[in-house]
Amino acid sequence: MKYSKILILLPLLLLIGCETTGGIYKNLIPLPTFMKGKIESSIYQSADKTFEINTPFKEGSPAYTYMEVKEQYYQTGAYVSFLSSVAHDEIYRVEVGKSPNAHQKRMKYNEVVDAVIKGYKKQLSAYGSQPEEIRRLSSNVGNKTGTLILLKQNINGKSIFQFIRLLRADTGATGVAWVQWPGKCTSCEDLTNQDVLSENKRVKSYIDSFNLKI
User: What's this model's pTM, rounded to 2 decimal places?
Assistant: First the structure.
């Protein structure tokens, strides 16, 4: 079963279609990449300057060569995902909601976190089982309020973990860096371990590099 077949959308945002770049053609050759954002030294910089994040796969690696980037930019936010046929069950996403305007009600931070996780759980249930929240840790970055949430889901006898870091700026702008990880994660379920990302360097590099710039 390919877990990447289901597209998950941030409940804060409404996305209609994504532009796709890179990837492979008939499992043979890498396709040329034409992106709205840009990648320099394995760092993706968004086209609207709202965020930057490490690419999950390093430039020069086979997984990077066959990496597919999906982008959607619109007036109120952005959605970008990274997938590779070399690691086809891993999904790396970023979603950003820009600051609400003066006519929009600003939700409290805890309400935003709860709404996002509720929406993700509902959509992940399309895999055929209910995800369980196993950790929720404070994860502030600079002057931005942050939370790291871990979900676990059993699919066909295999554990799938969702690493979700949510950041919120004083302006009300909200960003999420999210990894779907099909490998094991002993540290995730060890309640005495506060560094739950330490077990996997690729996940940790991606999540920790997320820089919400608005």
Answer: 0.85
